[in-house]
Amino acid sequence: MERSLVSSLIQKVLIDRRGTNYAAATQRGPAETRSLLKSRGAILLGALFIVTGSLHFVSRFRGNYLSIMPPQLPFPLQLIYVSGVFEILGGIGLCVPRLRRAAGMGLLLLLVAVFPANIYGAVRCMASRICRF
Q1: Which H/E stretch holds residue 8?
Q2: Which of 18, 86, 106, 121 is the most exposed place for a label (fewest CB within 10 A)?
């Protein structure tokens, strides 16, 4: 089901209501094509952030997120929820042209903030050879 959802989303992003296929973009100038693909790429990236942010609230994946949280951080579950909310908000922001730059900066800061947890999880995974992802 996830693959069909993703492929359907990609098709909707790359093909507009009139049926114009932007992946080909053969009859457009380079600047217009670049702008269009940039806009559609932002929407696709926004959708990915919305999906991954939503996974922070799914009990099936919660253990995976908890397993990469460094033990020094207080309130790990609440931090997972907060990062999920900000991923969803950033993803929505990427889909709105006026908010795109601010959302991009916010997501950049979020990715920098969660980077230590990703490093901790990767090191722990390599050390134990038991990876939850």
Answers
A1: helix 2-14
A2: 18
> What pLDDT, on a 0 to 100 scale, did the predictor assign at position 13?
58
Measure the CA angle with vertex 55, ends 50 and 59; round to 5°.
Answer: 155
Pairwise CA distance, residues 75 & 102, whole Å: 28
In contact, 91 and 53? CB cutoff 8 Å: yes
β-sheet bridge partners, residue 21: 15
Q: Residue ranges per domain, the chain?
A: 2-128
61 burial via Cβ count (<10 Å: 0-12, 13-18, 19+): middle
Mean pLDDT: which of 4-8, 12-16, 123-127 is highest?
123-127
d(CA 96, CA 92): 7
Q: Phi/psi of residue 15, each to 5°?
A: -125, 125
Rounded distance, CA 130 to CA 133, Å? 9
Closest by Cα among 2, 92, 7, 1 to 53 = 92
Rounded CA-CA distance 125/119 in Å is 10
Cβ contacts of 48 within 8 Å, gap of 6 or more? 91
